[in-house]
Specification:
Blueprint lengths: L1 E10 L12 E6 L3 H9 L5 E3 L3 E8 L4 E4 L15 E13 L2 E15 L23
Parallel strand pairs: 4-7, 5-7
Antiparallel strand pairs: 1-2, 1-6, 2-4, 3-4, 6-7
């Protein structure tokens, strides 16, 4: 199955699995209605929120094959939120502590339009007079 959307929280590069799940994963966001129907028909639960629209999280125990839009090996840059991606995926059944469902296995990922990952969200400098207005 091919799923196309925008990426959020991509942790797919070799050596960088998600800290909580221990898996390589990406949220595929802003899914179109046909994709939502196809995934739902496969038993996959579609999530929805204000920032991501309709989305699913695809996971893999090993780093997926990553390529650019020309099918060349990915250059190693982090994949930023909002990058347009498409993935090759396969639904799989899961069962954990008496709860079960269908997950989405991540096989390959293509970066169609890259948005640079921005880890420089540091606090901006403030006017020194700001300190006078803050009680500590």
């Amino acid at each position: 199955m091919i799923v196309r959307g925008t990426s959020m929280w991509a942790r797919v590069l070799d050596g960088s699995p998600n800290d909580l799940s221990g898996k390589y994963q990406v949220d595929i966001c802003n899914l179109d209605e046909d994709t939502v129907v196809e995934l739902t028909d496969s038993g996959i639960t579609i999530k929805n929120d204000e920032d991501r629209g309709n989305y699913v999280t695809a996971k893999a125990p090993r780093p997926p094959q990553i390529m650019d839009a020309s099918k060349r090996a990915w250059n190693g840059d982090n994949i930023g939120n909002g990058s347009v991606i498409k993935i090759s995926a396969k639904p799989y059944p899961w069962n954990f502590k008496g709860t079960s469902g269908v997950g989405l296995g991540l096989n390959k990922l293509m970066v169609v339009k890259h948005v640079q990952y921005d880890d420089d969200e540091d606090l901006e400098a403030e006017d020194v007079s700001f300190e006078d207005d803050v009680e500590v």
